[in-house]
């Protein structure tokens, strides 16, 4: 498994508080955003979109994950709404909803590219 990565547009301490009780989480400020990484790759994997909406609250959130087993997830929340949800498991698309002209996600490789470019 690879790390699950979440970026939340908010203050560092506020973002850390949302993950209270989660183990092995690492946090780093990235401008107006905070990058949270679950190095286990298991604590955040497979969440329902409603859980991401709750975690985001009123803040913007971008979550991304992929692994060598052809699993991939991408969630983008803005203004309390899920703008983009893409979930692929074992190479089969489970959820593909919403659009964002700034973020083009159409498959596993797009998520890997996005993470490499924006979530390091």
How would you describe this protein?
The protein has one domain: Alpha-Beta Plaits. The chain is 22% helix and 39% strand. The chain contains 3 helices and 7 strands; from the N terminus they run βαββαββββα. The chain has a 7-stranded antiparallel sheet with strand order 2-3-1-4-5-6-7, with helices on both faces. The chain is globular. The model has no long low-confidence stretch (mean pLDDT 94).
Key terms for this structure?
single chain, 120 residues, alpha+beta, Alpha-Beta Plaits, 3 helices, globular
Provide a quick synopsis of the model.
By secondary structure, the chain is an alpha+beta fold. The chain contains 3 helices and 7 strands, in the order βαββαββββα.
Give the secondary structure arrangement, pairings included.
Blueprint: E1 4-9, H1 12-18, E2 25-30, E3 33-38, H2 49-56, E4 61-66, E5 72-78, E6 81-89, E7 92-98, H3 108-118
Antiparallel strand pairs: 1-3, 1-4, 2-3, 4-5, 5-6, 6-7
What is the radius of gyration?
A: 13 Å
- Main sheet record: 7 strands, antiparallel
- CATH class category name: Alpha Beta
Named CATH architecture: 2-Layer Sandwich
Terminal residue distance: 17 Å
Q: Helix count?
A: 3
| Strand elements, count | 7
Shape: globular
Fraction of residues in helix: 10-25%
Strand arrangement, largest sheet? 2-3-1-4-5-6-7
Quickly count the domains: 1
Structural class of the helix and strand makeup? Answer: alpha+beta
Summarize the helix and strand pattern as letters.
EHEEHEEEEH
């Amino acid at each position: 498994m690879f790390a699950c990565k979440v970026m939340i547009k908010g203050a560092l301490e506020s973002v850390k508080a949302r993950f209270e009780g989660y183990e092995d989480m690492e946090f780093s400020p990235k401008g107006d955003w905070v990058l949270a990484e679950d190095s286990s790759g298991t604590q955040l994997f497979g969440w329902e979109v409603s859980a991401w909406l709750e975690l985001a609250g009123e803040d913007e959130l971008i979550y991304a994950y992929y692994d060598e087993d052809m699993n991939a997830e991408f969630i983008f929340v803005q203004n309390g709404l899920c703008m983009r949800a893409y979930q692929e498991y074992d190479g089969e698309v489970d959820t593909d909803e919403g659009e964002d002209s700034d973020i083009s996600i159409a498959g596993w490789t797009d998520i890997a590219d996005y993470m490499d470019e924006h979530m390091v």
